[in-house]
Amino acid sequence: MKSAVIVFPGSNCDRDMAVALEKITGQKPQMVWHQDTTFDDVDFIALPGGFSYGDYLRCGAMSARSPIMAEVIKRAQAGVPTLGVCNGFQILTETKLLPGALMRNARLKFVCKDVALTVENDTSTFTKDYSKGQEILIPVAHHDGNFYADTETLDRLEGEGQVAFKYAEDINGAQRNIAGILNDKGNILGMMPHPERMIAKELGGTDGCALFTSILNTLG
Amino acid sequence: MKAKIHVTLKNGVLDPQGKAIEHALGTLGFDGVDAARQGKYIELDLTETDKAKAQAAVEEMCKKLLANTVIENYSIELE
């Protein structure tokens, strides 16, 4: 499985993502700079966490319009599995590849801790190695993770199984405790928690591994 | 020509920063503030001299970058 990690100025989880991908897929991902306009033919694209462009204007707003994103959008729309974590999730909503928006945490505090998530969808490319209802522990580190969408969109996301993960309890004011969502085709996942930081016991746990093995088992 | 753009959160979208401002004003003894909403103000110096064309261009800028229309409204003033 060949993968690419897109690197923006201010990304700070790009190397964690690369380590996780290499450890689980056995192949080093291609690191792609945001000003490039194309990259290798890959099976999987990751948009890492961080504070790209210093969160200027809105989190992810600048990155979503950077040169490489035209290519990422094209490939994601063509069906290439694409994962956005934290800032990557914010970028995916800013590109409109995923619905909704990530707003300032309801209690205005930066939240940095391990949180319990419940798995809501266990059939997607990204989640099939989990089981529905399973509780997993994954860290979050964000100031703007308060997921917002209108009621109609929320109903659709829940009704169509597009909610991948929920927070077991409210941490940031996100509507319906949504922590991660899929697009309607199921090939794009955006999530605020960081599975790439939970891939070894030494790092605090291994609950993030199944996300990467799910992708690997789907793509081979 | 100058474009003055206000970007504000849509009605119904929770604005925690506005809420905090509202509380802080109350703490300072300013009674009578029913609600506070925080937004952004952006100024652009445009080379365009035709008002209609400038309006259309700034609309595009708002839709494509300056506002996130999922959660925000924008208003444009040209002078």
UniProtKB/TrEMBL annotation, chain A:
Catalytic residue list: 86 (nucleophile), 194, 196
InterPro entries: Class_I_gatase-like, PRibForGlyAmidine_synth_PurQ
Primary site of residence: cytoplasm
Pathway: Purine metabolism; IMP biosynthesis via de novo pathway; 5-amino-1-(5-phospho-D-ribosyl)imidazole from N(2)-formyl-N(1)-(5-phospho-D-ribosyl)glycinamide: step 1/2
Single biological process term from Gene Ontology: 'de novo' IMP biosynthetic process
Enzyme Commission designation: 6.3.5.3, 3.5.1.2
Record's GO cellular component terms: cytoplasm
Catalytic function, reaction form: N(2)-formyl-N(1)-(5-phospho-beta-D-ribosyl)glycinamide + L-glutamine + ATP + H2O = 2-formamido-N(1)-(5-O-phospho-beta-D-ribosyl)acetamidine + L-glutamate + ADP + phosphate + H(+); L-glutamine + H2O = L-glutamate + NH4(+)
Metal-binding is among the record's keywords: no
UniProt keywords, alphabetically: ATP-binding, Cytoplasm, Glutamine amidotransferase, Hydrolase, Ligase, Nucleotide-binding, Purine biosynthesis
GO molecular function, one term: phosphoribosylformylglycinamidine synthase activity
Subcellular localization(s) per the UniProt record: Cytoplasm
Quaternary structure and partners: Part of the FGAM synthase complex composed of 1 PurL, 1 PurQ and 2 PurS subunits.
Function: Part of the phosphoribosylformylglycinamidine synthase complex involved in the purines biosynthetic pathway. Catalyzes the ATP-dependent conversion of formylglycinamide ribonucleotide (FGAR) and glutamine to yield formylglycinamidine ribonucleotide (FGAM) and glutamate. The FGAM synthase complex is composed of three subunits. PurQ produces an ammonia molecule by converting glutamine to glutamate. PurL transfers the ammonia molecule to FGAR to form FGAM in an ATP-dependent manner.
Full protein name: Phosphoribosylformylglycinamidine synthase subunit PurQ
Lineage: Bacteria, Pseudomonadati, Pseudomonadota, Alphaproteobacteria, Kordiimonadales
From TrEMBL, chain B:
Keywords of this entry: ATP-binding, Cytoplasm, Ligase, Nucleotide-binding, Purine biosynthesis
Main location class: cytoplasm
One cellular component (GO) term of this entry: cytoplasm
InterPro entries the record matches: PurS, PurS-like_sf
Subcellular location: Cytoplasm
GO BP: any one term: 'de novo' IMP biosynthetic process
Recorded metabolic or biological pathway in which this protein acts: Purine metabolism; IMP biosynthesis via de novo pathway; 5-amino-1-(5-phospho-D-ribosyl)imidazole from N(2)-formyl-N(1)-(5-phospho-D-ribosyl)glycinamide: step 1/2
EC number: 6.3.5.3
Catalytic activity: N(2)-formyl-N(1)-(5-phospho-beta-D-ribosyl)glycinamide + L-glutamine + ATP + H2O = 2-formamido-N(1)-(5-O-phospho-beta-D-ribosyl)acetamidine + L-glutamate + ADP + phosphate + H(+)
Molecular-function annotations in GO: ATP binding; phosphoribosylformylglycinamidine synthase activity
NCBIfam families cross-referenced by the UniProt entry: phosphoribosylformylglycinamidine synthase subunit PurS, PRK05974.1
Quaternary structure, from the entry: Part of the FGAM synthase complex composed of 1 PurL, 1 PurQ and 2 PurS subunits.
Matches recorded under HAMAP family: PurS
Functional note: Part of the phosphoribosylformylglycinamidine synthase complex involved in the purines biosynthetic pathway. Catalyzes the ATP-dependent conversion of formylglycinamide ribonucleotide (FGAR) and glutamine to yield formylglycinamidine ribonucleotide (FGAM) and glutamate. The FGAM synthase complex is composed of three subunits. PurQ produces an ammonia molecule by converting glutamine to glutamate. PurL transfers the ammonia molecule to FGAR to form FGAM in an ATP-dependent manner.
Family indicated by similarity: Belongs to the PurS family.
Name of the protein in its database record: Phosphoribosylformylglycinamidine synthase subunit PurS
Gene that this sequence comes from: purS
